[in-house]
Amino acid sequence: MRAATQQIAQRFEQRFPEGTFAEPSHENVQDSRRRESVELLGIALAIAEPITQKPLMLLRAPKSAPMLIGDNPVVASNSLHGSSMTGFGLATDGTENAEAYGRSCQSVSVFLVNHRKVAADETRDTAFAFQAQLTVTCGAGFVARADVHSIDSSDPDLRIADLQFRDCFEFAVGHNLSTTSTVVEENCFNVRTCWIPQAEVERTTVPPMERVVLQMEALSILKDGAEAAASLQPFVTSYRKWIESQQSILQSLAGRRLETAETLLQRASIAASRIERGIKLLDSPIVLEAFRLANEAMAMQAKKRLS
Q: Is the CB of residue 159 less than 8 Å from the CB of residue 256?
């Protein structure tokens, strides 16, 4: 650094010889400023010098190592064998002879433990494990567990979701990360951790209903209230049949889920009655004209959106 500073000072002296900035009353001030400029240039060079050096390249490569948990899940931290995984181990903890859905099973928690010492700043990444993933397999299969976190929630949306997805089960839960399970014919033999979980959301479709007219263009040219009732009343009839078919499901529910289901069916019956009263209002020419205009506007907007 000292040699570089001297070189800069020499170039500075060559370009701006002594007396270039001199004034009778400010000679000492200019000399001081010139020295400060040299020092600042030297500092700037000292800061920039390391950037010109070849950086240390650390490549991240996937590594893996197996470990047998065995029949006893309550074991201490074990080291993973293999030079690529030196310094890492697994810690397990569990409960033996647990009962779940009438089956004897074990509840096991598995943690990846990093025993490596903290390295210097230049090589500290060598002591880390980036996006580590744990994969656990069980020949006897994992026991499905229902998610009941929202069953007693005061949030209506969470309670409805708990009711609708009551047949969905989980086989593993992550600690500060997510998990995914491989399920084949309702059996799961493999679970693993994942950082960005993915799931497919089923599309909601309207089942076919006979003699029901719901096309907006067709509804925009209804002639009178009688034609409106013939086109829309079958919808109410089909809706009430569906509500009646859901009553049989109540027998398989209990507690808060039963309360939620009964509330939803009650609201569905109220909605069916409201729809029926709305259809009867179409006997009025003014109401029918407003209904036709609304459907015509929505049909035009749909065409424009899809074009």
A: yes
Order of all β-strands in the sheet with 88-100 = 78-79, 88-100, 103-114
Q: For 214-237, b where at least 16 C-beta lie within 10 A, e where not — what string?
A: eebeebbebeebeebbebbbebbe
* Residue 90 DSSP SS3: strand
Q: Tell me the domain boundaries of the chain.
A: 2-52, 68-128, 133-199, 216-306
Cα dihedral 165, 167, 168, 170 in deg (nearest 10): 130
pLDDT band at 104 (very low <50, low <70, confident <90, very high): confident
Provide the residue type at 291 as one letter. Answer: F
Paired with 104 in beta bridges are 99
Closest C-alpha among 107, 100, 176, 98 to residue 136:
107
Dihedral, CA of residue 296, residue 299, residue 300 and residue 302, to nearest 10: 160
Who's near 163: CB < 8 A, 6+ residues apart?
253, 257, 260, 261, 264
Which tens digits make up the pLDDT trace of 204-259? 887 888 889 989 999 999 999 999 999 999 999 999 999 999 999 999 999 999 99
Task: Report strand pairing: 178-184 vs 103-114.
Answer: unpaired
How do beta strands 78-79 and 88-100 pair? antiparallel
Best CA proximity match to 213, nearest among 198, 200, 223: 223
Cβ pair 233, 276 in contact under 8 A: yes
For residues 223 and 213, is the Cβ–Cβ distance under 8 A?
no
Mean pLDDT of 62-84: 59
